[in-house]
Amino acid sequence: MKTLKENWLFGLLLLAYLAISIPQLSRGVGSLDAHGIMQVVQRLANGEEAGVSRPPGHPTTEYYLFGSVAWLIRHFGGRPFSDEVYLGMQLAAGIAGFILFYDLLFRLFTTRWRAAIAAACLAFSPTYLANSFDGEEFLFSIVFVLVAVRLLLVSPTSWESPSVLRISLSMLAFGLATGCRPEAVIAGVMYPLFYWFNPKQNWKDFAVGLSILGLFTVAIWLPVILSKGISPPTGSGMNTSQSVLGAGYKLLFVVCPLPVSLLLVWSSIRAGMELPVRLRASSPRDCAIVICFAITICFVIFFIRRSDKPAYFLCALPFTIALALQRSDRVLLGISVFTAIGCAVGLDIFNNRVMVPPYFTEGAYLKAVSGKPPSKLDYLRYISSFSPNSESSKAVVVANAWPWDFEYHMRRGELHLREELIDESEGVPSLVLRPVGNDSLLIATRQPASNLEFLRKRHAAGYEIWMDRRLFRTLFQKHNITDPLHNEGSVDGIPVRLF
User: Fold this and answer.
1) d(CA 174, CA 444)
2) Residues 6+ apart with CB under 8 A from 418
3) Which of 22, 75, 92, 498 is spaced 20 to 30 Å from 139 by Cα?
């Protein structure tokens, strides 16, 4: 009863998080990478050679977590690794991250009510919310990094005499975090800082710890190393200036609402100004603050080079919020209020990938659900009944949607389409669709859209090519942010009409 009384505010915020998250479990998976993960996991459950969904690999989630669950439900329940199972595990990771962050903040920094509010600012942030509803492995990475920090800094005995077991378990959790998201290796900066701050640790202890950390990490990645080897991740395709501008835009407008981002930047600058004083101290609180600052700065540097996904910064967001928690109650109040407002309404400076004056747009909640199949039904119905309004008797309409978006509604009888496999010689492992009773319209999804051979052959066969305006910009002019799109475009000499 005492525990319930002490944690009532956190309990209410957790219930609010669950109230908006649980309904999304039955609304399908929209993320491209999530479907890649599920394919690898299903192959593992079937005993086939799985490979990796994306280089360099994600062994913790794909092999150990999702793979184990998929094998169990297949062999003991006779069921596949479905959308609902995947989304349930995503939500479980979101809940675990919410609870762990709250507990860590309370034990290291502040009171329960301030810790609850700060943890809610993480859970209701746009990127965290989107990955709770759908998304990839980012939340699992956060969970393991927070476990690693807690084992390292929150000791049941003495900060100055940490047990070898707790340090080893912390390093194991960190290794598992890198197996969820490889960029989590950046958070490893916590270990040299821990040995620097702790007066009872010396360079020999650091060398032993580094060896243990390396052994754990290699062991976790061993299945990937032995099967396919470690391949570098795919690049973002941006030059330096594009990366810097993209990182600035996404850090300010996408990762968090703009006012929250500005408060977090200010708090991080203040933490940097206090760094010389912190470095001369030897308390676990000072060590934790310096670790938070170091992880934030290192992830900002990384994000400048890999800003194509806002969620790349998500692993650092708890530590950036922890820095803001060191400021006054007014700062925390501002972050919490603007996070709540940001769930309902947002501010942006891009519209269909074209820079425009600032305008209000949908909030974090609607953005998080907009990528899921049910939110696309009206658009897909429009595509299914598309009328080119031209003299051409045949048309290809390229939709800004994935095959599973159509399939979700076809299974429910909400769209009446038939599927056709594309000739394998075209190199497109995908399908196209035709409306029932209308052979003159061919619907292509995002998968074959970027295949020039597919577009070229259909154009040569007399099809008029129509493409979603936003998709055209995304695929072929994604770094052109100033010129508005017209009604027509060209792809390698192939005329394309835009809608």
Assistant:
1) 42
2) 433, 434, 436
3) 75
CA–CA gap between residue 143 and residue 100 (Å, rounded): 7
Q: Which of 3-12, 236-245, 305-314, 363-372 has the lowest mean pLDDT?
A: 236-245
User: What pLDDT is stored for residue 459 in this prediction?
Assistant: 87
Q: Give the angle 368-372-375 at the CA atoms, nearest 5°.
A: 95
CB 384 within 8 A of CB 415: yes
Mean pLDDT for the stretch of residues 110-116: 92
Separation between Cα atoms, residue 365 and residue 7, nearest integer Å: 25
pTM above threshold 0.90? yes
Looking at residue 159, what is its pLDDT? Answer: 67
Report the distance separating Cα 18 and Cα 244, nearest Å: 36
* SS3 category, 79: coil
Q: Which two tokens stand for residue 459?
A: 């154009």
- The letter for the amino acid at 312 is Y
Cβ atoms of 466 and 497 within 8 Å: the answer is yes
Give the integer Cα–Cα distance in Å for 221 and 286: 33
Determine the distance from the C-alpha atom of residue 157 to the mean position of all C-alpha atoms in its chain, rounded to a whole number. Answer: 36
**In this predicted model, what pLDDT tens digit does every residue of 285-301 receive, in sequence order?**
899 999 999 999 999 99
Q: Are 375 and 137 in contact (CB under 8 A)?
A: no
The single-letter DSSP state of residue 157 is S
